[in-house]
Amino acid sequence: MSHLLVATATQQAGVAFEQFAKVATENRALFLNTIADQIEALGDTLLQTAHEETHLPLARLTGERGRTCYQLRMFATMLRKGDYVEASIDTAIPEKTPPKPDIRRMLYPLGPVVVFGASNFPFAYSTAGGDTASALAAGCPVIVKAHPGHLKTSTLVSQAIQDAAAKTNMPSHVFQHITTTDFETGKQLVQDENICAVGFTGSRTGGRALYDYASSRENPIPVFSEMGSVNPVVLLPDALQQNSESIAKNYAGSITLGVGQFCTNPGILIGLQSEALQNFSQQLAHEMNQIAAGTMLHEGIQAAYIKNSAQALQQDGISCLTNPVSNLTDTSNSANHQATPILTTVKGSVFLANPTFAEEVFGPYSILVQCGSMEELIAVWKKVKGQITTTIMGTDVDFKQYPQLLDIAMHIAGRVLINGVPTGVEVCDSMVHGGPYPATTDSRFTAVGVKAVKRWLRPISFQSWPNHLLPVYLQNENPLQIWREVNGQLTKDAVS
Fold first, then answer.
1. Are 328 and 302 in contact (CB under 8 A)?
2. By the 8 A CB rule, do 222 and 457 touch?
3. How many Cβ atoms are within 10 Å of 402's Cβ, its own excluded?
4. Residue 91 burial (C-beta neighbours within 10 Å; 0-12, 13-18, 19+)
5. ∠ CA 486-490-495 to the nearest 5 degrees?
């Protein structure tokens, strides 16, 4: 049954693409804005449904709904500006030897996209989240495979998108919603020849599996998987000497924010053994002990947290700095999906000898690695490999003493912070939410901000085309009045 469902959906998406790719950007912008309006019109029903399915607090869900609608409207604004297509025109020079032809270039939509909903963001990274919004903005029909953790929420949002499509006269099947939860359906979607790209947010196991499915196709397609991150934080000596207490308070909040269920959760802290680091560890443990156990998204995530944190605590050389971990044995906590904050610590040499310590423990968990030298600290930092974020907590004194750390940071992550916390991802043009493998499958792209649209576009050159046959973005008159690069100069002027 699932095979027939997938085949029908992907064929319909393929037909929709032939029409949707030609829809004027103004109409696509209206579609995205209408989706936002329809989601907001669901009101408290949507919020309450998501709250019951995910256990996330209503205040958090209200903010996430706002972010989701903002993203949709942000892409609508991008479409109206028009320069996202990166139009470039090189006019002919017939007297050149050999003659130079007229060549024009722009970005064009890839085709139907499959988006896999994320468990920890039922709005912003799921049915109408950033992947869906950016793909629709690009001109790509979308098939969403709903996350089983919030099927009712996903269905409500799906209906809002479909209502918006009807209101704005979008092609039939420009958006489709699949609620089948088995893994085989996901594999079939990725390997169907009508599908041209995939968006995924979730585990490394799941993201890598989708990547491998897509690579084994007769015609491989891009998979943009965000697969988690431990977001290492380097704690430099003078920063701890000057600001230990405030850093501990801020990081206790960051580690436990949303019960640690963020891909930007600071899961590894790295510092040089010193009295300042010792004081910091005690202060951080004290702050985390003041934070009550929180309810995780669902039973599966809580079970994984218990399993992975227990596995870490069983390793040789590790110590737990926070209070006894009751949620590993308390059956009432397990029944209520509760997770207690955990802070552990190991020496740098122990960390380097045991790959287990570099693995993500998804939840309110962090490990403090105490290194005997800067060389060991750098080795530990590099051991965690590609990340979405990395942070350096340092003063001018620290950066003067260790200037090489800035270059190392840029090799490790897509977003590098100085004296901040990685949780919280601002939706703006300059944001990079991605990083080297294994954080994502393609570090050249972001999943947040308007530049996310580039995942679903490919460049096409138009050589010696008559003006009236060109896409409107490239026509001499520049009817959309967008910024274009004409013979190397950025301009809105018409081509004479």
1. no
2. no
3. 19
4. middle
5. 35
**C-alpha angle 307/308/314, rounded to 5°?**
90
Q: Across 394-450, where does the E strand assignment appear?
A: 413-418
> Pairing relation of β-strands 338-339 and 294-295?
antiparallel
Residue pair 233/239 in contact by the 8 Å Cβ criterion:
no
Mean pLDDT over all residues of the chain? Answer: 95
Cβ-Cβ contacts under 8 Å for 470 (sequence gap 6 or more): 104, 462
CA–CA separation, 298 vs 284, rounded Å? 27
Check whether 201 has a pLDDT greater than 80.
Answer: yes
Q: 3-class SS at 419?
A: coil
Distance CA 333, CA 324 (A): 14
Query: Which of 296, 253, 286 shows the shortest CA–CA distance to 423?
Result: 253
How would you classify the pairing of strands 233-235 and 294-295?
Answer: unpaired
How far is residue 343's CA from residue 464's CA, in Å, rounded to a whole number? 64
Query: Which one-letter DSSP state was computed for residue 172?
Result: T
- The position carrying tokens 């942070």 is 391
**Residue of 334, 240, 362, 343 lying closest to 289 (CA atoms):** 343
Compute the distance between CA of residue 60 and CA of residue 121 in angstroms, rounded to an integer. Answer: 10
Residues with active-site annotation? 226, 263
The torsion defined by the Cα of 404, 408, 409 and 414, in degrees rounded to 10, comes to 140
Q: Which residues pair with 197 in a beta bridge?
A: 113
Edge to edge, the sheet with strand 175-178 lists 175-178, 142-145, 113-116, 197-201, 223-226
CB-based burial, 219-229: b 16+ in 10 Å, e otherwise? eebbbbbbbbb
Longest CA pairwise span in the chain (Å): 83
Q: How far apart are CA 84 and CA 274, in angstroms?
A: 50
When pLDDT is averaged across residues 246-269 and rounded to a whole number, the result is 96
Global pTM value: 0.94
CA–CA separation, 139 vs 153, rounded Å? 25
Helices then strands, each counted (H, E), the chain: 16, 19
The per-residue pLDDT for 2 is 73
Residues 6+ apart with CB under 8 A from 102: 89, 90, 91, 92, 463, 464, 465
